[in-house]
Amino acid sequence: MKDVLRKSYDRSAAGYDEEFRPLQRPKYAALLEGAGPAARGEPGPSEDAGAGPLGQASAAAVRGAQEIFIRGSAGPILDLGCGTGLFAEWLAERAARSGAPAPALVGVDIAASMLAIARRRPGVRAAIQADLERLPFRAAAFGAAVAFTSIGIGGAPCGPALREAARVLAPGAPFAVSILKEHAPERVERDLREAGFAPLGPRMDCGQDWGWLCARKRPGAPKRHAEGDA
């Protein structure tokens, strides 16, 4: 399946931006600029309302995580499944509007043709061909990471890639992730917790995806279980 996906992405690289830019940009804005219940300091939706077992979010924690991505203040951002670098493009344009330099990114993708385009984006320090389930980085190497519509593609389980993302993130590092709605959000939330992430607020509707803003759990952080978990 991965080889099929790689070949498909390589074939579609030339026209990827035109087709997917309108789909991807709202996801970036929803998670990194959005003022949902958590960012406004309001209670998140209850589990009965479909928010999932994520509890109350700290408005300061959400804003702090968003600022790390927008400013690139924790070092290069790891962009998992970076494709042609549309996230880097969005960040650079946003930074330019305020006169700031583009935040630095390291992109990872399975498709060489996508990476060739990503390398030309402002702020992209490296664009590396690799499997998201076997990243070529040491543990705790990054202070922030994103994965927009790159995990669970083709019905693959989300857990392996989420665990690998957690491995290369430093404790407390923010992680923004969106996953196609074909995946049950409750299952994704369970995978996030089991991988070592603590969602900072309720899941967000990101168009074709569900999205979460999370933090890598620190050593010794208590485990939380959804109702009905063992």
What's the overall average pLDDT, rounded?
A: 86
Number of domains: 1
Strand content: 15-25%
Q: At the fourth CATH level, what is the homologous superfamily?
A: Vaccinia Virus protein VP39
* Straight-line N-to-C gap: 32 Å
Morphology: globular
| Helix and strand element order | HHEHEHEEHEHEEE
Question: What would CATH call the class?
Answer: Alpha Beta
Q: Give the helix/strand class.
A: alpha/beta
| DSSP E strands, number | 8
Q: What's the CATH topology label?
A: Rossmann fold
Question: Tell me about the biggest sheet?
Answer: 8 strands, mixed
Given as residue ranges, the uncertain stretches (5+ residues, pLDDT < 50) are 36-57, 225-230
Total number of helical segments?
A: 6
Description:
With 230 residues, the chain is α/β, with parallel strands linked by helices. The chain has a single domain (2-34, 60-216), classed as 3-Layer(aba) Sandwich (Rossmann fold). The chain has six helices and eight strands; from the N terminus they run ααβαβαββαβαβββ. The protein has helices at 2-32, 59-71, 86-97, 112-118, 159-168, 185-195, and strands at 77-80, 105-109, 124-129, 145-148, 174-180, 197-199, 204-206, 209-216. Strands 1, 2, 3, 4, 5, 6, 7 and 8 form an eight-stranded mixed beta sheet that branches. Helix 5 (159-168) links the parallel strand 4 (145-148) and strand 5. Helix 1 (2-32) packs parallel to helix 4 (112-118). The radius of gyration is 17 Å and the shape is globular.
Give the helices and strands, then pairings.
Elements: H1 2-32, H2 59-71, E1 77-80, H3 86-97, E2 105-109, H4 112-118, E3 124-129, E4 145-148, H5 159-168, E5 174-180, H6 185-195, E6 197-199, E7 204-206, E8 209-216
Parallel strand pairs: 1-2, 1-4, 2-3, 4-5
Antiparallel strand pairs: 5-8, 6-8, 7-8
Helix pairs in contact: 1-4, 5-6
